[in-house]
Amino acid sequence: MPSKPSTPITIDAVYDAPGYLFRRMQQIAVSIFMEECKAFDLTPVQYAALIAIHTHPGIDATRLSAVIAFDRSTLGSVIERLQAKDYIERKPAPEDKRIKLLYLTKSGAAILREIIPAVERAQARMLEPLKPADRKALMGLLEQLVDLNNEASRVPLRAEDALEHLGKGG
Amino acid sequence: MPSKPSTPITIDAVYDAPGYLFRRMQQIAVSIFMEECKAFDLTPVQYAALIAIHTHPGIDATRLSAVIAFDRSTLGSVIERLQAKDYIERKPAPEDKRIKLLYLTKSGAAILREIIPAVERAQARMLEPLKPADRKALMGLLEQLVDLNNEASRVPLRAEDALEHLGKGG
DNA sequence: CCTAGATCGTCAGTATACTGTCAATCAACA
DNA sequence: TGTTGATTGACAGTATACTGACGATCTAGG
């Protein structure tokens, strides 16, 4: 394509935009996840929250939002729904009356074990149309890009390591 | 990685999942878009709808949803907001009382011209952390994947070509 | 002790997304 | 022509997302 003095407005201004592709791919990913996991009545977000609570028992909501990079406000209702389904429970923290500690219930631990094969099928299906080498290449580039753009997101990811010094000190 | 008899539940079950990376990247993309375009009070979805209406004057809502692959229900409120901002207008179709034809207003055409540089800055910023060759590689793979997964999404993309025979025949 | 600033969970408001449903309308066919 | 089936826009209900604000609470400094 020759360089153009001013951009002509075509529908390709949408189709070729990275942001549009990211949106489409996210919607496809959610669609596949829900299809594979429809027996479990669990959304991708709820699944991620359960995993994070499983690996960080007693975490509070704000730190949970940093660990999985989800919005703090949104997470409130996610937690509510998980609690309503009896997959998690909230206990007041004795040393800080503001926070509530999150724990998996027996039900929560059980459904997590059961849903994982379905989630893995879903994740595999998302990339299935690509050749194995291309899958690796795409995931590698995407991991890099997400990591390098971390601070550009509203809720930057703060991995476990970054939380060690915050609340677990005792 | 050696093959494991059963999957240990770690936080990497979230971080390494393609679906999680797609979600994060989408959120980062929206965040960058809104930052670059904050002077225009236009969301990514509203921008895409305006472009599509510009390139398909007189399109109806259902076909618009196919052209940009957005959910038909969601699009209803998007159109309402664009109309409230006086960027588009809806006219009843004389030959079919069910549908309403969508057109850009002068305001809509104007803001589209004005916002495009900001959108292009946003799109460039999303990929900026990668080397130019990697940007091309990532976009190429993602285009392939979205295209090959088209039917897996709730609202498959039906490009302009596929619409020619539907409503434009006169 | 007391106050200034930070943090926590929560809430209101807005904007996607998707499911399922509905009345109005149209198209096709007997 | 009359009925069946499909389509259109609209709506209700649920679930992310984000902004901005709030009271309750904690922490630091004086």
Calculate the mean pLDDT score of chain A and round it: 91
The portion of residues forming beta strands of chain A comes to 5-15%
Q: Biggest interface: chains and residue counts?
A: A-B, 64 and 64 residues
Quaternary state reads: homodimer
CATH topology of chain A: Arc Repressor Mutant, subunit A
Order of helices and strands of chain A: HHHHHEEHH
**Which descriptor suits the 3D outline of chain A?**
globular
Radius of gyration of chain A: 19 Å
Low-pLDDT ranges of chain A: 165-170
Largest pleated sheet of chain A: 2 strands, antiparallel
Overview of this protein structure:
The structure is a homodimer of 170-residue chains. Chain A is built from 7 helices and 2 strands, in the order αααααββαα. The first copy, chain A, has 170 residues and is mostly helical. Chain A has one domain (41-163): Winged helix-like DNA-binding domain superfamily/Winged helix DNA-binding domain (Arc Repressor Mutant, subunit A, Orthogonal Bundle), CATH 1.10.10. A two-stranded antiparallel sheet of chain A has the order 1-2. Residues 165-170 of chain A have low confidence and may be disordered. Chains A and B meet through α2, α3, α6 and α7 of A and α2, α3, α6 and α7 of B. The structure holds a DNA duplex (30 and 30 nucleotides).
